[in-house]
Design a protein that fits this description.
The complex is a heterodimer of chains A (about 290) and B (about 260). By secondary structure, chain A is an all-alpha fold. In chain A, about 60% of the residues lie in helices and about 0% in strands. The longest helix of chain A has about 35 residues. Chain B has one domain. In chain B, helix 2 runs antiparallel to helix 3, helix 5 packs antiparallel against helix 12 and helix 6 packs across helix 7. Chain B is globular, with a radius of gyration of 20 Å. The chains are: A mainly alpha (about 290), B mainly alpha (about 260). At the A-B interface, helix 4 of A face helix 3 and helix 11 of B.
């Protein structure tokens, strides 16, 4: 190469990082993916990549994870509209990709802003997984859990957990959990057992973090209930409700902390004697 | 017979050297970069699927690069010699057309074998380096892949004896694509019930079913491929390759190079 073109190239080259820097400054360095999907059918995608379906499924799975993470972190309205089609395409390309059903269902089911808040679709994804992988007891377990945790259907959850228990290699505690659900119609302890299982089965990452925070929420709800009982005891002793929760400690009725697991003080409704997790707390979830 | 074999092997060795000189094996550098990047990044991105995805990428790259080499080098094996007129002095020597043709096939087959072996080694090393067990079961996916590639070379050589190398490449790619859709031909009547069964059967019989050589997904999930099915796949590949090579050879022998 002669000197003049080489010099020109050297002069032009710095324009690339410079212009990128400017674009990032104006549009943001990290941007959520556009809500665009050119192919909506897994079967169509499958036909486009004969012999490479498995690799295409991996690519769609990576895109699903990136899309979910990008929406969750950077999008302002967090609609997650492409989530379901991306999961459907992934699982159509590789029906054995168990992780796509399990994690996809969580992504869909968690309430906004953590997830798409569409648990019915999460359950449908798990049902598809159970049909494709009838021997995967963890998928059935998750399906049972989701019916209970997100759809509040203890009866169906119990039936599915019993089915999961029948699968070879399934965990022994599924049967007792199913019986407990049926007997008690579900309680916080059952939820805790389910989230603990999900926490223990997941590796470090988004699902484990989610299960961990769910367990902390349950702990905070327990603390709020205990505080409410102390409020009742205060009322019984003093003939009035405490004006503030701090009065419980002064009266020797509470020794613990008055903040939830996220260190946000519990809310207190003195007129009704209710102790609540505040909406500003990361521990708050819609009832 | 012995001399014929040694002459064919000499052509094969020369073809191998030629392909190496044409920098065909440069794809291995790309493969090495791909594997390194995949090994470094997938753990962060894929949520527990890094091993499966690494295997998928590695096997798909072997398949894709292998087909590209088989098609584009395979179609040039004979036609280039004709176009460059380097074939004439060769055939004037005590070298039969069959020895030349089969030697060319064996030479490219060996190039593909070396290519696949190095890629497999690269994949095993990547798995080992990322803390995974180097899975020798991958061989059960690579072996049928190699058989499929030999068939692609046979088709490429057949077409290159009939037409120009460009058209031969197009036709070979066509056969590979149609062969990968063989199941669609078999199930055609489910979508179009009016199509006569004999027609779908006939079409399915004359199209090589390249899906038979595809165990990538199964092996990526760590499932075993039985020796029985591998034996049948070997027989299927051998039958198809011999037929296509035979047709190619017949066409090559009947060509008038005056």
């Amino acid at each position: 190469m002669s000197r003049a073109p080489a010099l020109l190239l050297l002069l032009i080259a710095p324009l690339v990082p410079l212009s990128q820097q400017r674009i990032d400054r104006l549009a943001g360095a990290f941007r959520p993916q556009e809500e665009v999907l050119y192919l909506w059918s897994g079967e169509h995608v499958k036909r486009l990549v004969p012999g490479f379906e498995s690799l295409a499924a991996d690519i769609y799975w990576l895109r699903t994870v990136q899309y979910f993470g990008g929406q969750r972190r950077f999008a302002s309205d967090k609609r997650f509209e492409l989530l379901r089609p991306l999961i459907d395409i992934t699982t159509a390309l590789d029906p054995r990709l168990e992780v796509a059903y399990r994690y996809g269902a969580i992504f869909l089911s968690e309430p906004p802003p953590l997830g798409a808040g569409r648990p019915e679709e999460g359950v449908l994804v798990l049902e598809k997984g159970v049909a494709a992988l009838p021997d995967a007891w963890r998928l059935r377990q998750d399906l049972g859990f989701f019916h209970y945790l997100f759809l509040n259907d203890a009866q169906t959850a119990s039936r599915i957990l019993l089915e999961a228990a029948e699968v070879e290699g399934a965990a022994f505690w599924l049967r007792t959990l199913a019986a407990d659900l049926l007997a008690k119609g579900g309680d916080r302890e059952a939820s805790r057992r389910m989230w603990r299982q999900m926490f223990e089965q997941a590796e470090e990452g988004i699902i484990r973090d989610n299960a961990r925070s769910r367990l902390l929420i349950l702990d905070s709800l327990d603390t709020a209930d205990a505080l409410a009982r102390s409020v009742l005891e205060f009322e019984r002793r003093h003939g009035r409700r405490p004006a503030r929760l701090e009065e419980l400690a002064a009266a020797g009725l509470w020794r613990g902390s008055l903040v939830d697991a996220a260190n946000v003080p519990f809310g207190y409704d003195a007129t009704r004697g209710r102790v609540l997790i505040q909406e500003t707390s990361p521990m708050w979830r819609p009832e | 017979m012995g001399r014929g074999l040694s002459r064919a092997l000499a052509v094969a060795a020369n073809t191998f050297r030629e392909t190496v000189r044409e920098r065909v094996l440069y794809n291995l550098v790309f493969f090495a970069i791909l594997m390194t990047l995949a090994g470094l990044l997938l753990g962060q991105l894929s949520i527990r699927q890094d091993e499966k995805i690494l295997k998928d990428i590695g096997l798909a790259a072997m398949d894709l690069f292998g087909v590209l080499i088989a098609v584009f080098i395979g179609t040039g094996l004979v036609s280039k010699e004709i176009e460059r007129r380097s074939l004439y002095p060769l055939l004037a020597k005590p070298l039969s057309r069959s020895e030349f043709f089969l030697g060319k096939f064996a030479g490219l087959g060996f190039t593909l074998l070396v290519n696949l072996s190095v890629m497999l080694l690269g994949l095993l090393l990547t798995l080992g380096a990322t803390g995974r067990r180097p899975d020798v079961g991958l061989l059960t996916a690579v072996y049928p892949l190699f058989l499929g590639l030999l068939l692609v070379v046979a088709f490429a050589m057949l077409f290159s004896t009939l037409t120009s190398s460009t058209l031969a490449a197009v036709l070979t790619v066509g056969v590979v694509v149609v062969g990968r859709f063989a199941d669609v031909i078999r199930g055609m009547r489910e979508v179009l019930p009016g199509v006569p069964q004999q027609l779908t059967k006939a079409l399915f019989a004359v199209v090589p079913n390249f899906a038979n050589f595809d165990f990538k997904s199964q092996v990526a999930y760590g499932e075993a491929v039985s020796a029985g099915i591998l034996a049948w796949v070997t027989l299927y590949a051998a039958a198809w390759t011999l037929i296509v090579l035979g047709l190619g050879l017949a066409s090559f022998r009947s060509r008038d190079f005056q």
